[in-house]
From TrEMBL:
InterPro entries in the cross-refs: Cation_efflux (IPR002524), Cation_efflux_CTD (IPR027470), Cation_efflux_CTD_sf (IPR036837), Cation_efflux_TM (IPR058533), Cation_efflux_TMD_sf (IPR027469), CDF/SLC30A (IPR050681)
Transmembrane segments: 27-48, 60-86, 92-109
GO molecular-function terms, A-Z: zinc ion transmembrane transporter activity
SUPFAM superfamilies for this protein: Cation efflux protein cytoplasmic domain-like, Cation efflux protein transmembrane domain-like
Domain of life: Bacteria
Compartments (UniProt record): Membrane
Alphabetic keyword roster: Ion transport, Membrane, Transmembrane, Transmembrane helix, Transport, Zinc, Zinc transport
Keyword Transmembrane: yes
Domain Cation efflux protein cytoplasmic: 121-195
Family (UniProt): Belongs to the cation diffusion facilitator (CDF) transporter (TC 2.A.4) family. SLC30A subfamily.
Segments forming domain Cation efflux protein transmembrane: 1-114
Annotated Gene Ontology cellular component terms: plasma membrane
Record protein name field: Cation transporter
Amino acid sequence: MFLLVASGAIAWEAIQRLANPPAVAGLTIMEVAAIGIVINGLSAWLFVKGSKGDLNIRSAYLHMLADALVSLGVVSGGILMIYTQWFWLDPVISLLIVLVIVIGTCGLLRESTQLALSAVPRHIDLAAIDSFLRQCPGVSDIHDLHIWGISTTETALTVHLVMPAGHPGDKFMDELVLTLNQRYSVQHSTLQIEQGTTNHSCTLISVGRH
């Protein structure tokens, strides 16, 4: 949200400057921006690996990458303005940078909102987990399957398993939990075993992806 607000401020300033572009000290801008490219580019590179699985790290990565892109745009604009005196390039480049930042930030904001609303994380295949649980030995049906993110790196699951023969034993449960973790990236599973003789439906419904 901070990046979107900052982008809005940059866009507003760029639009105002576009109507009456002032002279820009191209060489000074290039020198400062070049330093920014090195520092922010290196910082973004350090976050690349962790940005795929952690929303917090991805947020920091996008912030550093956005700063590096801004600096790159400033350097490019500085070179052109030195040789052409086209000072209108400054606000135009600013608007292009804002567009790039907004496109990347909207996806981050959407994922953050899903996490806040306890929705199914985007990397979780809800249909595949549902199918897997239904095919487990002794399971005749499942219901009240809920999956949500409890942090930026961990996912929780609760489900009712209808097993007419009764509780299958701790070994079965351990293997099921291990499979959910290793195959489907669900780190915390709560499994409720039922024989199907009564209705055990949950009264609360969590937000999910349909």
